[in-house]
Each structure stands twice: as C-alpha cells, then as structure tokens.
Amino acid sequence: MAIVNRIAEFSADMTAWRRHLHRIPELGLDCPETAAFVADRLREFGVDEIHEGIAQTGLVAIIEGQGAGPTIGLRADMDALPIEEETGLDYASENPGRMHACGHDGHTTMLLGAARYLAETRNFSGRVALIFQPAEEAGGGAGVMVDEGIMERFDIAEVYALHNAPGVEAGAFYTTPGPIMAAVDTFHVYIQGVGGHGAMPHETRDPVMAACGIAQAFQTIVSRNHYALDDLVVSVTQIHTGTIDNVIPDKAYLNGTVRTFDPKVQKMVMERMEAIVAGQATSYGVEARLDYEVHYPATINDAEKAAFAADVAREVSGENRVIAEAGREMGAEDFAYMLQRRPGAYLFLGQGDSAGLHHPEYNFNDEVAPVGASFFARLVERAQPMAQAAR
Length: 391
What we know:
By secondary structure, the protein is of the alpha/beta class. The protein contains eleven helices and 16 strands. It folds into two domains: 5-180 and 299-390, Aminopeptidase; 183-294, Alpha-Beta Plaits (2-Layer Sandwich), CATH 3.30.70.360. It has an eight-stranded mixed sheet, with helices on both faces. Helix 4 (104-121) links the parallel strand 3 and strand 4 (127-133). Helix 2 (11-23) runs antiparallel to helix 4. The protein is elongated, with a radius of gyration of 24 Å. It starts with a helix and ends in an 8-residue tail after the last helix.
C-alpha cells in the first residue's frame, strides 16, 4: 500500500487519538468533548480557520493551499451509539450505555491525520474544508450542517467521505457510481382495542391479533405490490403489547423501517401502509393509526467523482484492492444531504475481520487509519494540484 510516508510517521499518534475518542463516546448533536478534542488537535496542526458550534457541536476547519482554486470538502462523523460496550478493551467506553460501535472514532481520526499532513505540506491549490459532523446515527447532523449553510459559507465545490467496512480486506476500498445507500424511513402503528380476560376473547377486540395481521400484511408490499428486481426493504422490528398470559391487552404498537431508492417506490409504500392499517383495523374491529416518518434520502454518488475517488484509492491501496462498481446497499447514511447539495462520493474502507457495525464487541482497526488519512490527503492533492494555481 502507498501510505503517505509522513502520515505513516505519526500513525502512533493517530492510534492514541482514536483510542482517546473511543473512551469518550457522545450521542447525537451533543458531542462537546469530542469536538473540543478535535479543535485542540486542529489548533496544534496550524490550520487557518476553525469554525465551531455548527449543528450544535459540529465544526468546519479550513486549510489554505498554495494559490487560487476551489474548496474541497472532506467529512467525518463524530457521534456514537447508545450501546453498552462488551469489548473488554483497556480503552473501552467510560460513558455507560454509550459506545463507538460504528467506527466514527476512526473516521474522525482519519480526517485528523489528513488535516495534520495537509496543514504541514499544503501541496495543493485552493482550500480544504474539514467537516467534523455530529449526529449521523440519529438526528441527521449532515442535514443540519447543510441547512445552516456550510456549503455556501465555505464555498465548498465537492465533498467526500469514508466509512469503515468490517469483513472486507483491511485497506481495500469499494464504492459505486450513482446510488450507493438507501433512503431510510420509520413507521409506527398504534392500535387501540378492547382488552379483557384471556379466557373470554369474544368479549374483547383483540389488538394482538390486529398487530399480527398488520405485520404480516406489510410484508406483502414487497412480495405483491413491488417489482421483484427493484430494491425495497420493509421490516417490522418491534411489536409491544400485553403484560401477562391471561389478559388480552387493549393496546398494541408496531415499529419498523423502510429502505428505498426510488421516490415513487417510497410513495407506494406509504400509500399501501395507510390502506393496510385502515383495512386491518376494520377487519379486527379495532382503531389503528399509522405515523410514517421520512428520514435520510438515498446516498447518491456523482459518477465522475466516484470514478476519480476510486482511482485515488487505487494509488493508495493498489489496483486489485479497489472495487469501483460494487453496487448499492440497503443501509442509510446522512452524508446523502451533502451529496444532494454538491457533487462528490462516499466510499467504504475495509477493516478486516471484526465484529459487525453496531455490535457491542465492535472495535475500529487502527491499522487502516493511515490508509484512510492517505486517501483523503492524496484526493486533495490530485483534485487540486498546485499547478492549477499557475494557469
């Protein structure tokens, strides 16, 4: 692998940064300790500007290159998950019920590594905008930062991000042109029936049976209302009702997720869910209400930028360790909001064998941090070479 030599020299520092961040996981938009650590490192590196308090605890740092040119945006997410860590590491989470189970501590570290190198060398024209974002897991921090005007305020022309990928060869990359991750929505169904004795169901209007009927009927949206070769996921993930074996409850609740790429498919799902909830309520003699929440849109790579980013990844990781057309996934990512405003690309970086994302035993692989930092650094140097300033 062609890791930048200077970045390799301070890889031990990167490991220390990442493990410190792993100890102090924070949630949502409320990441003050993480943001303060990031800002302190950026000041040490000598970046030109640090703008704090964006999307509550997000920040954007600017590094000026040599000569005129555009601004390229590089984004890392900083937030953790509400999970109790089970790694047993000596640097495990010190915040009970919170854990960096998705590797955002590693993402932040990779961007810090690139920032240190770029601030030292400035072997590029124009500017780099380093975007450290809270609330990727919940709260749509990328959307909040975009709504607060970061693209216009810092004149960002294009934007890129990385995410680690457990189970993929360490240091290998993959991406794809066009849609790479799905839009994500959440549905809630509230059922009101009439409870009673479990031995006398004829005197009740059973919300349990209604919940089961609605859950089963929702699955027919994929199998009977949708073209089989298009991508769609409808998953019921929670059913809550009842307290004891001999009482039929009076309420039930269903919750789940919908993943789509096409707005027309999304609209169809919403309409079918409304019809199913209403029809099943009538069938079972209960009252039922659907609340459908639209969340992150699909993450759509600019085809040209994705091809360019894959080429940079080959330079860093090797020709045979980059897949440029890997296809799309049903996971979701709020970087989508940034790609709606500016062209760019989202890539995955393999971190070898490990527990999966969002698992209580997950841990970011420190060995790949210099690879990600080198990718960001070379991306800037190739996208905005110094020769551009003399044109």
